[in-house]
């Protein structure tokens, strides 16, 4: 089979035990008969071309349908916008499907490996290599997030003024999006390792190891989320502390000028009988008195260690 949806196909395996690998690139206009010619069960065909998919695994009619998510390395794409890969696997055929313009780098790497002579004895061997490559890239992306967070924490330890708060928010969002797809992927691999009748115990053990790797990645993403929360809490605490300090200073200034404001208000009333109206030195006396009151209040605050 070779049409405009088939990116490549290989006959793999060893003598007496071959299996075929076909990789397709599809879009919304891909005709349904393309999948029918590959003898894919009708119950699976809709899942293979679905617009939105989450990681899952289904055993049906002697084969396994599994959907995976991987880091998006396509041009102008965000890594957390994870690429969907659909796979239909039997003991003698593997069909992998990508979306147009959202191809998976790990598939291209395996294709290159086949072209260089790498031998897969069984479809599960091919699947295990795919999982390793997907897992390595997820690990690298988590490490990138971790390094970025280390830099932000280092800046925060020196001065919160140097912290780019939006960077921490972006890291938290990216970690949350990755966790959203990686968590069900572990469950899908667990189901695959238990329900696939045509894989050996050795293959099942290897796939469970990949599921355990995903569990460690989930723990790392949760730690990243908690670290970003701590940074944001520290940032909010710093802002609140500064606002509190400014309000405290304003309170002290208000406490000093409150009695002075009372005096200016009293002597500023335009009524008869106010003392000092006819005294030429009354203004000087009032200013000296107010200054002495301000100094006394200031010294009292210092004595009380209010600042």
In short:
By secondary structure, the chain is an alpha+beta fold.
Indicate the low-confidence ranges by residue numbers: none
How many domains, in number, for the residues? Answer: 2
Overall body shape:
rod-shaped
The CATH first-level class of the largest domain comes to Alpha Beta
Helical stretch count? 7
Main sheet specs: 6 strands, mixed
Main sheet: which strands, in order across? Answer: 1-2-6-5-4-3
CATH architecture classification name of the largest domain:
2-Layer Sandwich
Mean pLDDT, nearest integer? 81
Structural class by secondary-structure content: alpha+beta
- Report the CATH topology name of the largest domain: Beta Polymerase, domain 2
How many β-strand runs?
6
Amino-to-carboxy terminus distance = 84 Å
Task: Work out the radius of gyration.
Answer: 35 Å
Residues in helices, as a percent range: 55-70%
What is the element string, with H for helices and E for strands?
Answer: EEHHEEEEHHHHH
CATH superfamily of the largest domain: CorA soluble domain-like
Estimate what percentage of residues fall within beta strands: 15-25%
Subcellular location: Cell membrane
InterPro entries: CorA_cytoplasmic_dom, CorA_TM1_TM2, MgTranspt_CorA/ZnTranspt_ZntB
GO molecular function: cobalt ion binding; cobalt ion transmembrane transporter activity; magnesium ion binding; magnesium ion transmembrane transporter activity
Transmembrane segments: 247-269, 281-301
